[in-house]
Amino acid sequence: MHSVSVKVPSSEGLMMAATLDLPATTPVAYAMFAHCFTGSRFTPGAARVSKSLAEAGIACLRFDFPGLGQSEGDFSETTFSSNVRDIAAAARWLEENYSAPQLLIGHSLGGAASLKAAPLIKSLRGVATIGAPFDPAHAVLHFADRISDVDEQGAVTLTLGGRDVTISREFLEDLADTNPVEHLPRLRAPLLLLHSPIDQTVGVDNAQKIFQVTRYPKSLVSLDKADHLLTRDGAAQRAARIIRNWIDPFLVPENESANREPLPVDVAEASSIGSSKYADEVRTGRHNFITDREKQAGGRDLGYTPVSLLIAALAAATSQQIRQAAREARINELDDVHVTVSRIVADDGAQIKLRRSIALTGDLSVGQRHELLAAAGNSEVEQLLSHEVIIEDKDR
């Protein structure tokens, strides 16, 4: 995964600072992330979710709304409705410069804006929100005692998240005029609502209300033990994994590998990844994965090392062979198999050994245990390692 900084025009022509998180290989699809109220693209929710999606194959554009983060503009001149239009403008930019977004993610008030903006983005295959309020006006509840100052002075400056933010009368009036009951039923894209049951900023009842008035297909998933801003270790990454698994059936894969015919049995193919020194995209059968070198060996540790794959193959093949032998011999007492394979290098580096440890769990007799352990050495992988294998090189 790698990130690039870009500039995206807002609906008013202001330049919004943005980051496009890209997978190591060609993206399966493109997504967008709308950050929380007065936040930025670098808040934990935005940055960590976007990066995790990129690691899972989906490129994600996260941007600062005008007047926030590193974007141009004055926040006091923005409204909820202008943010909705900004999301649509970012989607047009992404389509013109990369590919049309299939997934839109919004956090907190950014989630509410995403729900209203979604019908404006025809390419969407799904919308996901994290801790989104049912009514966008919920955003002002935390400074309700200062609303009278806005009425008197036309604006009020608050310190939110360690920075001064000016809230205008137009901003509040626009929130008051936004009726979620009117626009939420218009959402046609599949919807995923992620919400923490212990969210103290936006209560989980907001997700329940959104769920009640929106159309199917829709899903409501609890982000257990997560705080509103997803600052707890692993919370954002967990949200990203849920989103990635949920959106998969709805996506139209854009990368070439998704449309390629599966390779024949006993064939593997490795293609170098241009953005790294040693990483490769490896295909075998219907599956693909990333390999790389460890950082101390000059790589970026983006995936499995070739040696670790070889060792893992022996461990997995051993476990499978033992279980196959148990089924064939009808040894039903075998409950579990645990195989550990370690590479042992001699001090002089001249000799390399593989040390294998096998643990069989179950009420097995001595004879059954002996029979199963004897079967461990019959796997195809061990046969390859135990015999001299001829490698014929061919320059294509």
Entry summary:
It is built from twelve helices and 15 strands.
Structure description:
The protein has 396 residues and is of the alpha/beta class. It has three domains: 223 residues, 3-Layer(aba) Sandwich (Rossmann fold), CATH 3.40.50; 38 residues, no CATH class; 81 residues, K homology (KH) domain (GMP Synthetase, Chain A, domain 3), CATH 3.30.300.20. The strands form four sheets. An eight-stranded mixed beta sheet has the order 1-2-4-3-5-6-9-10, sandwiched between helices. β9, α7 and β10 form a beta-alpha-beta unit. α2 packs across α3. The longest helix has 23 residues. The protein is elongated and about 85 Å long. The model has no long low-confidence stretch (mean pLDDT 90).
* Mean of all residue-level pLDDT scores: 90
N to C succession of SSEs: EEEHEHEHEHEEHHEHEHHEEEHEEHH
Percent strand equals 15-25%
Total beta strand runs: 15
CATH H-tier superfamily of the largest domain? Alpha/Beta hydrolase fold, catalytic domain
CATH architecture of the largest domain: 3-Layer(aba) Sandwich
